[in-house]
Structures are given as structure tokens and as C-alpha cells.
Amino acid sequence: MYVVECLETCENAEMVQDLRQTFPGEVLREASRRVNQLQRHRLKKWLQELNHPTLAFAPSQIIQIADQRHPCKGMKLKIVATKAQYLLCQPINGKYKGETWYLTLDEVNNDVNSSYLQES
Predict the structure, then answer these.
(1) Rounded distance, CA 29 to CA 63, Å?
(2) Is 58 within 8 Å of 82 (Cβ atoms)?
């Protein structure tokens, strides 16, 4: 019951992370089944943020793929939207300008050169 109360009072992803470090995953999963529906939705969102940090990318941000083997290598891409498992991007230069591409979170995690991240 105490863990359920802890989950109910969470206000952000950092608080969820603190609980993850305090309680075993099985205990948290069982307790999460007992929180109210709105809080459970919030918890899922925060867990996605914790498990997939690239979701912190925001629309209008500009990224550039660093991996020379990637089809988008060297292109500057504007993030159009973020989805659960991928980013929608549009090249802002080159022959593919204006097309919309989907990049999986794994591609972004492995290939983005962080020195090219910027706001447009």
C-alpha cells in the first residue's frame, strides 16, 4: 500500500526514477496496477521518457547524422514530430529537401552527432 501511495504522489520522471532505485521492478509494477487511471497514464509517459531519452528531442530541433554508413549521413534534418518509437524528420538541405523520413529511436541514439543538435 505504501508503494501505491508513493506512485500516486509522483509529479515527474525524476520522482519515478527515485522510486525505481528504491523498490524492485516487480513491486512497482504491481503497485502501478492500483493507482488511478490518470496517474497511471502519467507514469507510462514518464517511464517512456526514462527508457527512451531521445524523446527529449523536440519539433523544430535540427539534428545531423554522424554515421557515414547511414543513408542520411551529413544531412541536416529538422524534427517535425516525435512519436513513441521514432522521429519524423525532414532534410533541410540537399536533393531530399521537403521529404519526410522516419528515424527509429535506435538510429537516433546510435548515430546523431550531438555537436550538431540545435534549435531552428
Answers:
(1) 35
(2) yes
User: How far apart (Å, rounded) are the C-alpha atoms in residues 65 and 89?
Assistant: 11
For residue 119, the model assigns a pLDDT of 43
CA proximity to 55, closest of 21, 104, 6? 104
Strand order across the 101-104 sheet:
101-104, 86-91, 76-82, 61-64, 118-119
| Statement: residue 113 has pLDDT above 70 | no
Total residue length of the chain: 120
CB atoms within 10 A of CB 72: 19
Q: Cβ–Cβ contacts within 10 Å for residue 56, how many?
A: 9
> Cell 544531412 maps to which residue?
75
